[in-house]
Amino acid sequence: MSNTIQTYASAVEAGHIQEIAATFSTAIKVMPPGANQPNEGKEKTSMMLSTVAAVIDGYKLIRTYDAGDNWHTLLLEGSLDGTSLQIIDQVHIDENDLIDHVDIFLRPAFLAESLLGKVTEEIKKRMA
Fold first, then answer.
1. Cis peptide before 108 (omega within 30 of 0)
2. Phi, psi (deg, nearest 5) at residue 108
3. Chain centroid to CA 94: how far?
4. What share of the chain is helix, strand, coil (3-state, %, to 5)?
């Protein structure tokens, strides 16, 4: 597994915004669950991903996979409002060994709206 993926996985699990940002290219695009278009920019996407760790109880990395062609998959688990969930990040590494694309999937899918609401609320608190 690449050092970038190891750093990203640890940073996402711990919610460390600067370490997440350090793994991203300037062209980063993150497609959150249920979204129709990606979020872009290191600052915005790093803040979003770091906040997920703050709102999911027991958020932890379960495993990572090398999917080939510079794609990697991370499986994280935790709970939201007492319901167990899994988050799957499909991550692409560019030619500079930086992450340029992340697709995020959530199971069960019905938690997507609640997760988005909690992340948005937490970001507002952090920005205040």
1. yes
2. -75, 145
3. 17
4. 40, 40, 20
pLDDT, tens digit, 9 for 90 and up, residues 78-87? 999 999 999 9
pLDDT at 104: 95
pLDDT in tens, 43-68: 999 999 999 999 999 999 999 999 99
For residue 104, give both structure tokens: 């995020």
Domain ranges of the chain: 3-127
Stated pTM of the model: 0.92
Instruction: For the sheet with 57-68, list strands across it.
Output: 39-40, 24-31, 99-107, 83-93, 71-80, 57-68
Q: How far apart are CA 100 and CA 63, in angstroms?
A: 21
**100-128, pLDDT tens digit by residue?**
999 999 999 999 999 999 999 999 998 88
SS3 per-residue string spanning 33-69: CCCCCCEECHHHHHHHHHHHHHHCEEEEEEEEEEEEC
Max distance between CA atoms of the chain, in angstroms, equals 41
Helix (H, G, I), strand (E, B) or coil at 111: helix
CATH classification code of 3-127: 3.10.450.50
